[in-house]
Amino acid sequence: MTLSWWRLELPALPELEESLVWKLNALGIPRVALRHRPEAPDQRQLVAWLPEADWPEPERRQLEHALAPLADTFGLTLPPLTWELQDDEDWSLSWKQHWQADPVGQRLLILPAWLDLPPEHADRLVIRMDPGSAFGTGSHPTTRLCLEALEQLANQRGSSEAPDLGSIRVADLGCGSGILGIAALLQGASSVTAADTDSLAVRATRDNALVSGFADRFTVELGSVERLAEQLEGRPADLLLCNILAPVIEALCPAFHTVLAPDGLGLLSGLLVEQAPRLQQALAEEGWQAELSAQQSQWGLMTIRRL
Fold first, then answer.
1. Distance of CA 184 to the CA centre of its chain
2. What residue segments make up the domains of the chain, in order of their start?
3. Which of 195, 199, 174, 172 is nearest to 183 (CA)?
4. Strands, E, within the chain: which ranges?
5. Using CB atoms within 10 A of its CB, is residue 235 exposed (0-12), middle (13-18) or buried (19+)?
6. Under CATH, which number does the domain 136-306 receive?
7. 249-293, pLDDT tens digit by residue?
8. CATH number of 4-95
9. Are 276 and 265 in contact (CB under 8 A)?
10. Which of 87, 101, 132, 249 is most buried by a 10 A CB count?
């Protein structure tokens, strides 16, 4: 019997992108990719692959109804879903063809592990990624904000000739594909300790750390902030990376003191600019000074330090 797949596509509005990926994974749909052309980073498309036998028409209609409330939360309308039936093929190759070398900031390059380094980017620090089907490819504004902030921090701590993070210890809470931790190691961090509540994320991070040559300096475990603190063994990190949704950051911030040193710096993303005031108040109540330091589209990056 030949297996066929439904290929689901819809425009990934910036406000909905992370919520859609999260919801699809929560519904047992892990084969998800986000694609964009490097010259048009704001025009992203979400693509998912679903086994035909498991998704007859009634179930496909129910899926659309399940996704619609995500748009309602932002006062938006869910973009139209398109379904295309395709023969059994290596769906991973199907989505890989849409992912190309993607420069970020002045020094970084996100490069699919299966592509050669383009000569025009030979002077960049290469983040080699093969995240499987479960995660995006670094195109989301929240990820890019964090990558650019890491680059700026390296510029501040190093020199104009040799930007460097200065052998700091990094904690990555909600690491996803591991892209932020890898970027930190490329720019001089001594180690990255990470955690994610998704087992697919843990596997993807381990694979990407190996592909990038950092398996010995990048540890990741399944769990949330408590597990991350256990891994740090009572020695909170110098830099905390946390690219998750604002309500989750708010829920986790009472435990930030267990993973970030008193003189450390936190880079928080995954939040909408309009969510910043509430999050700043929650962080202040836990003893953190929070500043909205960068934004892209409607998404923001917040830096935190101890008051």
1. 14
2. 4-95, 136-306
3. 172
4. 4-11, 32-35, 45-51, 82-87, 102-104, 108-112, 125-129, 169-173, 191-196, 218-222, 237-243, 260-272, 288-296, 299-306
5. exposed
6. 3.40.50.150
7. 999 999 999 999 999 999 999 888 989 999 999 999 999 999 999
8. 3.30.70.260
9. no
10. 249
